[in-house]
Structures are given as structure tokens and as C-alpha cells.
């Protein structure tokens, strides 16, 4: 299991290196489908943080807040982040190091980014709005209720019952 920010940062690097446009909205949806792919393939969740149900679909809050500085524009570089160091009881500046992810994980992400490159951010939003977990919470989401998390078992069930939504295939 990896830090969600490390996976997100490599998604950005992979997209930029492959000349594939990525913004915060698309990054969130790619991360969600990557999470679903790992669950469906029996690999478990690739990161600790849980997805939340937001107005535009699934979101990893820490990644969203770290990348929101780009607004709706394309992300061109990985920004510096801050991480809490429990030993010093302080937040410290952190810059992603590509070697933090093993080569097989980087290759998997490269191929994944390429396979979903044809989808626009809003096409992915529309698709995630059709997923059972989001639809079941839509009224609460529209009321502004926060901290509604996706459930791994429900995600696996949805994607196994709706194989056409396995966009990575």
C-alpha cells in the first residue's frame, strides 16, 4: 500500500511525460478507476486514504487540496506538498521522488493513464455519477453532507456486475 499523494504525483508525471492533458478533476477520476481496478483484480486498495462522494464524483480529499491550486487548468508539474512528521510534531515540506514507487507500479500507471486518455474529465464524472454508490448518496451529496465514503466491497460488486465500466480493459 502506498501514500495516495505518491500515486497521484506519479499519475501527473506519467500524464505530462505522455503529453496527455490532466487537471485535478481528471486526476481524481483516474485515481478512482485505478483504485477500482486494483480492488476488482484482487490486489486490495493501492492507498490508505478513502474516496469521498463529492458533487463531481469520487475524490481523495488530500490530493484534491494539494492540487486545487491549479483550478480547472491542466497540471503541468508536481507541486511541493506538506506531510505531518509525528516524530517532530510538525508539518514538513515534501517533494515526490519517482523512486518512491517501484518500477512495476510506474509501468502499471503509465499503461493505465494511456488506456483512459481518450476520456475527458466530464465524461468520467458522468460515468461515476451512474455508479450505485454515488447515486445512492446523491441527495445527501447535493445537500452538502460531507465525509460520505466509498465502500470497497460495494465498489467491487458494482464493477463486477458492470464490466463495461471497467474502462481499463
Can you lay out the helices and strands and say which pair or pack?
Blueprint lengths: L3 H14 L6 H17 L11 E3 L2 E3 L1 H7 L13 E5 L4 E5 L8 H13 L5 H8 L3 H11 L9 H10 L8
Antiparallel strand pairs: 1-2, 3-4
Helix pairs in contact: 1-2, 1-4, 2-5
Task: Explain the overall architecture.
This protein is mainly alpha-helical and 169 residues long. The chain has one domain. The chain is 47% helix and 9% strand. The strands form two sheets. Strands 1-2 form a two-stranded antiparallel sheet. Helix 1 crosses helix 2 (24-40). The longest helix has 17 residues, at 24-40. The model has no long low-confidence stretch (mean pLDDT 94).
Percentage beta strand:
5-15%
**Helical stretch tally:** 7
Strands side by side in the biggest sheet: 1-2
- Sum up the overall morphology in one term: globular
Low-confidence stretches: none
What structural class do the secondary elements suggest? Answer: mainly alpha
Helix amount: 40-55%
Largest sheet: 2 strands, antiparallel
Mean pLDDT over all positions = 94
Rg of Cα set = 16 Å
Oligomer: single chain
The string of secondary-structure elements, in order, is HHEEHEEHHHH
Number of strands: 4
Distance between the termini: 23 Å
Number of domains: 1
Amino acid at each position: 500500500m502506498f501514500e495516495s499523494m505518491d500515486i497521484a504525483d506519479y499519475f501527473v508525471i506519467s500524464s505530462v511525460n505522455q503529453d496527455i492533458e490532466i487537471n485535478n478533476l481528471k486526476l481524481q477520476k483516474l485515481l478512482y478507476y485505478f483504485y477500482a481496478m486494483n480492488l476488482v483484480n484482487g490486489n486490495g486498495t493501492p492507498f490508505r486514504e478513502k474516496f469521498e462522494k463529492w458533487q463531481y464524483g469520487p475524490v481523495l480529499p488530500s490530493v484534491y487540496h494539494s492540487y486545487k491550486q491549479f483550478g480547472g487548468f491542466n497540471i503541468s508539474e508536481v507541486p511541493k506538498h506538506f506531510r505531518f512528521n509525528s516524530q517532530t510534531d510538525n508539518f514538513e515540506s515534501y517533494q515526490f521522488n519517482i523512486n518512491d514507487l517501484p518500477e512495476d507500479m510506474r509501468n502499471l500507471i503509465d499503461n493505465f493513464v494511456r488506456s483512459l486518455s481518450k476520456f475527458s474529465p466530464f465524461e468520467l464524472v458522468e460515468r461515476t455519477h451512474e455508479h450505485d454508490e454515488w447515486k445512492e448518496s446523491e441527495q445527501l451529496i447535493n445537500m452538502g453532507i460531507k465525509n460520505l465514503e466509498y465502500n470497497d466491497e460495494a465498489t467491487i460488486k458494482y464493477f463486477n456486475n458492470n464490466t463495461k465500466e471497467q474502462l481499463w480493459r
